[in-house]
Design goal:
Chain lengths: 311, 279
Amino acid sequence: MTTLAERPDVERADPARRRNRFRSDRTTIYLLLLPSLLPIVVLSVFPLLRGIYLGFTDARAGRNVEVSFTGLANYRELLGDELFWNSFKIGLLWAVGVTVLQFLLALGLALLLNQQLRFRGVARVLAVVPWAMPPVVVGILWKLVYHPDAGLINEFFHRIGADGLRTNWLGDFSTALPAVIIVGVWAGMPQTTVVLLAGLQGVGRELHEAAAVDGASTWHRFRHVTLPALAPVIVAITSLDFIWNFNSFGLVYVLTAGGPGGKTMLPMLFAYEEAFRYGNYGYAAALGNVMVVIIIALLAVYLRRRLREAN
Amino acid sequence: MFGKPSRTSRTLQYLALAGYLIFLGFPLVWLLSTAFKPPRELVRLHPTLIPDNPTLQNFVQAFTEQELGRAALNSLQVSLASAVLTVLVAMPASYALARFRSKLGTAALGWVLLSQLFPFVLLIIPIFLVLRQVGLANTHAGLVLIYVVWALPFALWMLQGFVRNIPRELEEAASVDGATRVQVLRRVVFPLLAPGLVATALFSFISAWNEFFFALVLIKTPELATLPVALARFVGIEGTARLGPLAAGSLLATLPSLIFFAFMQRRLSSGSLAGAVKG
């Protein structure tokens, strides 16, 4: 993004000469664009529109099934579906929990990495590795860590003599969701850290130094210099994190597949089961539509509050 | 950073850093350790952090007995095909986007952002239905098609940035010297664009290599499964002794993206690609 903003606009440099040398009829441009645009429209834009439409039908799996428009019937059914509400609550807890923890931890780490500390190099590398892992591998990795018999955490509690704390982290009703949230934080923290660190490096030193000369404490400088300068980056990355977390699938699918007893049944997992286990395409698409509307509504509230604060 | 921080605050900073290193590092150490443990140590009542007798047995087993080898090959094929196709398709369009003022560039970027909003479940059902109609469901070709389309908006945006970095004057100078349009593109633009093409190919390769959801839904035949799907199936098989090969397979599945990240590190740390890769 930065590269685009910084570069002077070459196109405006010499319009007359450009027109002569690079006169290009619209057809050439469209021919160049066609191989990219056609697949995007056919396999991305069009399916999306059709997916939204499916949410208003009774589409089901199977060949030659008649699909009819049912209006808001799916949504009426969703309103009365206890399993959906349950999954929706879990999804919100997960998305908000992961996003907030991820942000706070990432901010702390970014601030540390922005200092002249020893081991900073190691931390920088470690901070990126989870990001490089496929979500499925992150899930497997943490399954090993949480394993009731062969896991790192239970063994740690044994070694420090706290055998009472050993438990089946992913299988227990009360620990499953928090355990899964920690994995979400671990997996998403690196990216947030890198973005925040990039933002921090853009905060002017002069301002900081001036504030320090004026006798502002570290906290004051953080609160009144760093944070306001970082605000746009924070808003952008937390919004994206929230969207990604709310739509996340692979990680929890591998960790718990929604269990135990539906305690970690994120909306995406619920929709996946509806569509590909029970074949209720229309119902699953309706659920997807509801999720989009909710994400947009929550983001709108969040962004409006941030905007008002900024003014 | 500014003035001399007090000794206590320095100590606190190092304590916090140590906390982060433990949180980030220990799970990774555990994966490594599990991958190199012989079966006897895996089933031990109280496992150790460092294997007593490290072995490569798990890697061998993962790729011979558990069919992860075939899955890795499938993944390699699909990812390579996606990478090559993405670059080929994106190249002309990104040139047009960079050199000619057009609203389509903004639209492509807008689509990248907008598409993040929609849960995959809305896309997957219609895509599944379309692919089934043309007989491409449950094939690698269908999967490649989806991966290319999915990587394209970002690849376009990335590649047109690289094109913009090539001074237009170079092209003009070449054509003044009598080079034809095609020659200009081949002799001037293409060589300078090479790093951008490599970066775009790598991005596309990694997103295909790591992708799970589409592969899970679209591929039904076990012999065609990609590595993430095969690994996820493997998780379902119970038994502590199986954890070794599982960890070994997971480590190998991470290698390509690690190489990619090492390669892209400078760009990543500058934050310009920060929104690029998300599983």
